[in-house]
Amino acid sequence: PPGKKVLIVYAHQEPKSFNGSLKRVAVEELSKQGCSVTVSDLYAMQFEPRATRNDVVGCLYNSEEFDYAVETGKAYKRGGLSSDLIEEQKKVQEADLLIFQFPLYWFSMPAIMKGWMDRVLIQGFAYDLPKCYDSGLLKNKLSLFSFTTGGSKGMYTKESISGDIRYILWPMQHGIMHFCGVKVLAPHICYAPEPASEEERKEMLMAWAQRLKTLWKEEPINCSSEWYFN
Amino acid sequence: PPGKKVLIVYAHQEPKSFNGSLKRVAVEELSKQGCSVTVSDLYAMQFEPRATRNDVVGCLYNSEEFDYAVETGKAYKRGGLSSDLIEEQKKVQEADLLIFQFPLYWFSMPAIMKGWMDRVLIQGFAYDLPKCYDSGLLKNKLSLFSFTTGGSKGMYTKESISGDIRYILWPMQHGIMHFCGVKVLAPHICYAPEPASEEERKEMLMAWAQRLKTLWKEEPINCSSEWYFN
């Protein structure tokens, strides 16, 4: 609805890809609704995935023995994180909904997107101890994992060797988003768009647009182990 | 035993860290056994985690619409992958055992190590379709995930909110290593070394050295969904 803010974190190298189309569909449909949409196009930004000393501007708390979590936590508090991280954190802070759009790489997100999680979701900003899970610092936000697979739907069932697709979602939805207090909407999965026909791909894009029309009425999933493993 | 080759893929920024010590212990103990040990120190190498067009030397198969999997698969066949990838693939090819040493970041490996998986384990080299899982192309190799956690052991049980630690291992051990045909040894997990005493940390290092002494007699785990979820 008008006024809602959406951040799409997008990880595909090729604008003409099916992931590129899914991203475009989301931007169009959400904008049409009056949402304000921001895209972090990670490859286009050449987003840095490596968690290093460069993420801290100025002196270290302990330069004798570099501890990434400690240093970035302290740097966050004094406004001393590198500017690319501050930029992303601002986008997250303002967003009501985070959409992650990516092709599944090795049962997970591409490294460039994992780097976004590792570097942006800093202690003090996204969580604190014990402020995690339902009391995580990014409460009152929603998230949605939207991704494509190489394998068909039938390859991701409990009985098949690759297992239920939900097993794969546990670290991403629960371990990251829920940990930060972010509520999780049902994932949007496009199975095997590559071998599909042009017609089928069109249908998948329309289904995504259709879902987005009523997205704000959706209830988050109950993000606990039962959803994933029962 | 003498003659065995080990590749340690290591992801920590700080040599003085506990992960650094675990890596050193492994190099020392395995060398003492007469193994030949190679270390890929990802941060020191400034290893590139992003999967981009730069991974292909020369012309693309389809420069109109870049498809990373297609392009790297074809480049692998003609020897046209970027030199850093060829280098890593040689190390993998020669190794009998792959050890991954890292701190757990967000229920998974750090992005720099995920990038190693995304970029090194190319179709045609690590797997092919349908040559995957037990017939993956890296058959006859062993792997072992050795990592540290922030949380205590009690935080990673079925009943706790963070769930069983094995849920986290599924994408890494099964989705990557098993998919490539690599057998998986039991993980080596050091829980919460940070808040531990110097004495306790020393014990953890000795336990790792101790395990390595009889590592070659270990049987791989039965890497199917039962091990992870039952």
UniProtKB/TrEMBL annotation, chains A, B:
Domain of life of the native organism: Eukaryota
E.C. number(s) listed in UniProt: 1.10.5.1
Catalytic activity of the protein: 1-(beta-D-ribofuranosyl)-1,4-dihydronicotinamide + a quinone + H(+) = beta-nicotinamide D-riboside + a quinol
UniProt domain Flavodoxin-like fold: residue ranges: 4-212
Cofactor: FAD; Zn(2+)
Cell compartments where the protein resides: Cytoplasm
GO molecular function annotations of the record: dihydronicotinamide riboside quinone reductase activity; metal ion binding; NAD(P)H dehydrogenase (quinone) activity
Keywords in alphabetical order: Cytoplasm, FAD, Flavoprotein, Metal-binding, Oxidoreductase, Phosphoprotein, Zinc
GO CC, alphabetical: cytosol
Main location: cytoplasm
Coiled coil: none
Group of enzyme by EC: oxidoreductase
InterPro entries the UniProt entry points to: Flavodoxin_fold, Flavoprotein-like_sf, NAD(P)H_dehydrogenase_qn
Subunit record text: Homodimer.
Family under the similarity heading: Belongs to the NAD(P)H dehydrogenase (quinone) family.
Summary of the function given for this chain in its UniProt record: The enzyme apparently serves as a quinone reductase in connection with conjugation reactions of hydroquinones involved in detoxification pathways as well as in biosynthetic processes such as the vitamin K-dependent gamma-carboxylation of glutamate residues in prothrombin synthesis.
Official protein name in the record: Ribosyldihydronicotinamide dehydrogenase [quinone]
Organism: Trogon melanurus
Protein encoded by which gene: Nqo2
